[in-house]
Design brief:
With 201 residues, this protein is of the alpha/beta class. It is built from 7 helices and 7 strands. Strands 3-2-1-4-5-6-7 form a 7-stranded mixed β-sheet, covered by helices on one side. The radius of gyration is 17 Å and the shape is globular.
Length: 201
């Protein structure tokens, strides 16, 4: 046979998460039978993270990383490259992504944040800290933001935002629940659109 045949592999996603992994679970479910996109790896910085159970239940390989291996070496980058990972998705991952990692996956790292950035972003602003701040300031709305990742917390270009109204009677946990509904609904969809527009050939 003359010439060669190019076979495009599925776009492979690595999900980084530090906690229970509810967003990871939704993303895995969304792409389970997808023809061109798959979740290939779960990465966490905690040995007892709930997301590891989700990985096991879905027969997805998992990797536990250390601060040094992630921030001070190319070890994790090399592993992801060896697995042909095309895109990194942060889903409740609490470590700052170092510049050398950002540069290894240029414009291919997405994060989700439980506020309408630039409000309530930055170091220390995650999870309940965000929702408590929203409540304390008596905001009339909150929401979530999906953005590209750079070397600063919650600072990359915004890809998508969605709002939800806040009732004055709602406490921080109720605000969190409303925002999480938005995250679960939109994050998988926006990942798919982003891949089709920016990554898939």
């Amino acid at each position: 046979m003359e010439g060669s045949t190019i076979v495009n592999h599925k776009v492979k996603i690595a999900i980084f998460a530090s906690g229970g992994g509810s967003n990871a679970e939704k993303i895995i479910g969304y792409f389970r039978n997808h023809t061109t996109i798959e979740v290939s790896l779960i990465v966490t910085n905690k040995v007892d993270a709930g997301v590891l159970k989700i990985a096991a239940l879905n027969n997805i390989n998992a990797l536990i990383i250390t601060k040094r291996s992630f921030s001070q070496t190319n070890e994790i980058i090399d592993i992801l490259k060896s697995l042909q990972i095309d895109m990194v998705v942060l889903a409740g991952f609490l470590w700052l992504v170092p510049i050398h990692f950002v540069e290894a996956f240029p414009n291919k790292i997405l994060n989700i944040h439980p506020s309408l950035l630039p409000k309530y972003g930055g170091k220390g602003m995650y999870g309940h800290h965000v929702h408590e701040a929203v409540k304390a300031n008596q905001d009339k709305e909150s929401g979530m933001t999906i953005h590209l990742v750079n070397e600063k917390f919650d600072d990359g270009n915004i890809i998508f935002q969605e709002k939800c109204a806040i009732d004055a009677k709602m406490d921080a946990s109720e605000i969190a629940a409303e925002v999480l509904k938005l995250e679960h609904t939109y994050y998988p969809q926006i990942i798919e659109e982003f891949i089709k527009n920016k990554i898939a050939k």
